[in-house]
Design a protein that fits this description.
single chain, six-stranded parallel β-sheet
């Protein structure tokens, strides 16, 4: 058994590659606890659409502790500053327990932020800036964001609301003269493992999983959130499943249009995830890629050998 609360193990990869499955098996093997690096699993009541699959956190009858899942209400707009703060809290809890922390997810921005050793500054809303951006298209907002020299140039801009927030943060950082690495956090040892899944297999798994989630009641989940009082714009903000299914539920698009658009959007999202991870390698992060098609035991053996 390996236990090292000072070393962070990272398991990353694109959507539908089996990250959580591998991370929970590893946690069971080495006395680990999972810290989620998924920007949408943060939210309560958003379960099917975010793919929480909480049953995977039970391995052979053993419950695997997890953190940063179900910590905010649906409708809230959680941000990177809060994630860095909550990540540090989770790391402290795991260290006190004497277990090994395993960061698992596909949100590259979150992963890179906590590995890169910098602390985000909380950014207030800027009503004047928001008024100046009102009515601009998503492409126009992305062009504005590209002018700023901060990490937020590469954040998620899949919706107008996200792009506006990214500009707001980038503008604040520039005006305040805040650099990427201000308020550096304590450096930690880490080892990164990525699941390398070929494009065709990834696309097949995404399509299969989308159909499975529709069958499991993903549309009903969105309907319940709207019935509970969430505004359609609040759900659209989260992108992907919640964007397109909300548009379908409120009658803006047909089922077929929703399904086709969502499937295409998820494929593109997975491609962007891989682009981010390859970018991390160019920025100096060493990622040990594990072939998707080797069995679980072989993956675990390679991880344990590397971290030992």
């Amino acid at each position: 058994m390996i236990t090292d609360s000072n070393r962070l193990i990272v398991v990353l990869g694109p959507t539908a590659c089996g990250k959580t499955h591998l991370a929970t098996l590893l946690a069971s093997r080495i006395n680990g606890q999972i810290i989620s690096a998924d920007s949408r699993q943060i939210y309560r009541r958003m379960d099917i659409g975010t793919g929480k699959d909480l049953t995977e956190y039970n391995v052979g009858g053993k419950a695997i502790p997890y953190h940063l899942i179900d910590i905010a209400e649906a409708g809230y707009r959680y941000n990177l500053y809060e994630y860095c703060r909550d990540f540090d809290i989770a790391m402290s809890k795991i260290a006190k327990a004497g277990d090994t922390p395993i960061l698992c997810g596909g949100t590259g921005l979150y992963i890179e932020a906590v590995l890169d050793g910098y602390k985000m500054v909380e950014v207030p809303r800027d009503a004047s800036l928001r008024r100046s951006l009102d009515g601009k298209s998503l492409e126009e907002l992305r062009q504005i964001l590209a002018r700023y020299k901060t990490l937020h140039n590469t954040t998620d801009t899949s919706t107008v609301a996200r792009a506006v927030r990214a500009i707001e943060i980038a503008d604040y950082y520039e005006r305040k003269g805040i650099g990427r690495r201000c308020n550096e956090r304590p450096a930690r040892e880490y080892t990164i493992f990525g699941i390398d899944i070929d494009r065709d297999t990834r696309r097949r798994r995404i399509s299969e999983r989308l159909q499975a989630r529709i069958d499991e009641g993903m549309i009903d989940e969105v309907g319940r959130l709207l019935a509970d009082g969430l505004h359609p714009d609040d759900l659209t903000y989260y992108g992907l499943e919640y964007k397109y299914i909300t548009q379908y539920v409120v009658g803006d698009i047909s089922f077929d249009e929703m399904y086709r658009s969502l499937e295409t959007a998820i494929h593109r999202f997975a491609k962007r995830q891989m682009t981010w991870f390859r970018g991390m390698e160019r920025r100096g992060f060493d990622i040990c890629w594990l072939p998707y098609d080797i069995d679980d035991e072989e993956k675990l053996s390679r991880i344990v050998a590397r971290i030992s």
